[in-house]
User: Fold these one by one.
Assistant:
Number 1:
Amino acid sequence: MFNLDKLLRDNIRELVPYSSARDEFQGEAKVFIDANENSLGSPLTKWYNRYPDPHQHAVKAAISRIKGIPPQHIFLGNGSDECIDLLYRAFCVPGKDNVIINPPTYGMYEVSAHINDIEVRRAVLLDDFQLDLVHLENLVDEHTKLIWICSPNNPTANSLNRQDIEIVLNNFPGLVVLDEAYINFSRHKSFIQELSDYPNLVVLQTMSKAWGLAGLRLGMAFASEAIIDIYNKVKAPYNISQATQELALKALEDVGQVNEMIRQLVTMREQLSRDLAALPAVQRVYPSDANFLLVKVGNARAAYQHLLDAGIVVRDRSKVELCEGCLRITVGTERENAELLKSIKEWKA
Ligand code: PMP
């Protein structure tokens, strides 16, 4: 019932992709005068006068070793945000197709849909922040191309039930995009090992969270080779800069340090959660599988302003469905967390 070719936009199926100088010749040579670069160099280093590897072979090989996923199942984007946008451009016909999101969730699924003139259908999560499978199923029609699932979810911080995700994967004939941006902070297993069971699965991960490299802009999509081929067909030729590729490669050598930071952040999250829950102004701290907490304070706008006056910026999520009265707070450093606690303690709700 899953037919990738049928899901694809006609113009993308027929597209002749851009072929770059680096696509056409990848070997060693004495003289490279094929790409209209500045042959003399640059104010930085000689290295940056050349276009980067359009397919990021070295970075993908390193990610492949760490994740245990072959490189041909990996696509790299300028942040996950590029991986999100390209799915709309490849699969969704503007003004005709639709996608389903499960709010409250990450805002870019909807913004990117609007940029691409794609209808967004909303299956709001249940009160326990789990998928409403009945509502979801009722929203699907023949023009539904993508279902966005975020687990652990932003801003609710919880993981979605694995069985529910499997039900969607087994029954929806379009693409199921599972955003695992926060998976490293979770007790639950990633779905990247299940790619061979689900030809309609795209898993998104990012270097912006656990890897601590939000400034580099490197997002990862894991999927079947056929889906990765489509990503490569529609992407800009040199979407990941030379600087990003070099720095990511360096960072990927140190998975040990990242695992240690994850361990610390999870410990700090649990401590911060307990400390916040003990404050009179705090009504509820929701369980978190991520590196942030959803915290119910009642008058969230006033709490937000109070913290801002103290020079502390958190995210006011009180206008978001199911998050009334809530702030979303990232786990900071020990000092930042202490300042936050001190300031909330002084706040009279
Ligand atoms: N997905 C989720 C769920 C996020 O919360 C975020 C960032 N807030 C992103 C994706 C974007 O990640 P990136 O920095 O890789 O674009």
Number 2:
Amino acid sequence: MKSESPRVAVLISGRGSNLKALVDGVNSGCLDMQIVRVVSNRNDATGIQHAKAASIPFSLIVQQDYPDREAHDAAIKKILTRDRVHLVVLAGYMRILGENFCTAFAGRMINLHPSLLPLYRGLDTYDRALQAGDRETGASIHFVTAGLDDGPVISQVRIPIDPGDDAKSLSQRLGPLENRLVVATMTLFCRFALKCVPGAVVYNEHILEKPLLMRHDGTFI
Ligand code: GRF
């Protein structure tokens, strides 16, 4: 890791498997970036342990401590600005950030979502895919805009839905691939190969017509 490597903040609310994948990616030398801050909105998020184990500065920022959403978002923004964060990764961060925050980090904030966006924004994505009789599901990474799970989609990984699958089995199969997807996608950021323009992703100076599709081995098609 070089001192000029991108400075990244990871926001979490739960398990933190994607945070752990990013930490491992940095420690193994495959991701040339620095995780300079982890923020959680829940003090019971088990992912906090990954930040502590890796000695990453950590902040607990809970809505109840602030009079309104604006004040809460401003508190996060202040910390990330002080930390000179280039890129924000929402890795299972289960709270909607307001328009001012999204504007401040426009083109510099990505979100992980367990569906093949634009399908199934919001919660219960596996159940909704199962109820719809879909033959496949997957995970997406997209630039964040003020809309829920909205914004240009950068990358995806797909898995088939087999007979007998339920939300738990889909989550167990997809989880490790989503971890791989976030590392593979962040590798492209670290090479400065990804940019956001209004409504679209630019990859290697070309507008992406459709999201980059990751093979299960972590390489892009
Ligand atoms: C992931 O499935 C992500 O897509 C969703 O929340 C989950 C977070 O998992 N937004 P983890 O906390 O990184 O293990």
Number 3:
Amino acid sequence: MNQTKGTDTKSYIESNRQRFIDELFDLLRIPSVSADSKFKADVRRAAEWVREKILEAGADSAELHETKGHPIVYGEKIVDPSLPTILIYGHYDVQPADPYELWDSPPFEPVVKDQKIFARGAADDKGQFYMHIKALEVLNNTTGLPCNVKMMIEGEEEVGSENLDIFVKNNKELLKADVIVVSDTSMISNEHPSVTVGLKGLSYLEVEVTGPNRDLHSGTYGGAVANPINTLCRMIASLQDENNRITIPGFYDKVAELTLEERKELAKAPFDEEAYKKELGVDGLAGEKGYTILEQLGIRPTLDVNGIWGGYTGEGAKTVLPSKAYAKISMRLVPDQDHHEITALFEKHFMSIAPEGVKVKVKPHHGGQPAVVPTDSPGFEAASRAFEEAWNKRPVPTRDGGSIPIVALFQKELGLDSILLGFGLNSDAIHSPNESYGIFNFIKGIETISLFHKHFGEVHGK
Ligand code: BES
Ligand code: MN
Ligand code: MN
């Protein structure tokens, strides 16, 4: 099955291509949903599977590290302590697949359609971290490893990485490396490869508005008693002004404004507004005034309601003035905002705008700090060279609106920047029904990652 050492990496990938895809399918069949305790055993099964594959790829060792939640898989291959070390991070957990009825094929029964693999986790992040395990196999069976490799694949990214946080703080020696590589982001397109250099932070919270002590007849009481849903809507609406700026006092105080030069650099990324709207089925956009769409997405903080509920939502009509209303709200943050501070500012402000007649509770969920990765590092140079060799183009640096909170923690605790070598596309529909990952991206990613190892070995220390 495996070819012998000496073959070049590209032909090794080509001749093992179908097996790589089949293996990924096995992983995609495991419903490792971290948020839902019903899948706890499956999450563990996925961890065991990943451990096996890291060993099969040629690692010296791979183990499960138990946590209060789902296990962390850690494996390594140290070829020579004098060589540079690459630490790979990824996550084997996935988002819940709901709503199931909107999937064209079952989320945990992967299928290929139009050269894309459809399954929950195909791009986020199973198809992406698995490229690293395959790159390890490829290098091991062809040229040999040009760098030492450490791999840390966690099972709680989609629920906030709390236990990984602790693991990193307690295992700094184990995780010692020269660079971190993460494939968990997207590129502009296959024609315009890009490397992410900015991720947003996150403050996520839930609010509860209580009016009367019980549900009331909306005719008998409506008009006199504060309706918590009406009130919540008004409160939420007031959080943004007519320019789509957030009205929470102090919210923008620590936002780092970019220089004109930095903004010009960002504007180099191609962006087609018409195609963007068309793809989303909207006839207009509604971002913060004074900033381009790429800036709104990449460098400006945002506030969005992620869910809102209360009252009667069943079939037909029921005339009721509800006792309670709820919403889940996310704020995406940019340097140098701090998610603890922003959560506190939100809480204070939201309580202060509550009108008479209702009580308000704010319950913070998880959060994370924003991160920016410098482009003048050996890691970024190695990434650029790897893309140049595999894609015949140097990648454009971009800032993403998504969050991978552990990246900021790696900077703080390990003093290491992460190279965000993501091969997904926005059209992969991560977190949505019909998530997919292009076979081209999967295979090309394995090639690019293998080249990254080679180039990092060459540029490191120069
Ligand atoms: N892989 C995503 C983050 C991402 C996606 C970054 C696309 C850039 C582009 C990650 O798995 C994710 O979903 N993160 C969460 C945050 C987490 C704390 C739940 C997010 O961004 O909502
Ligand atoms: Mn992810
Ligand atoms: Mn995700």
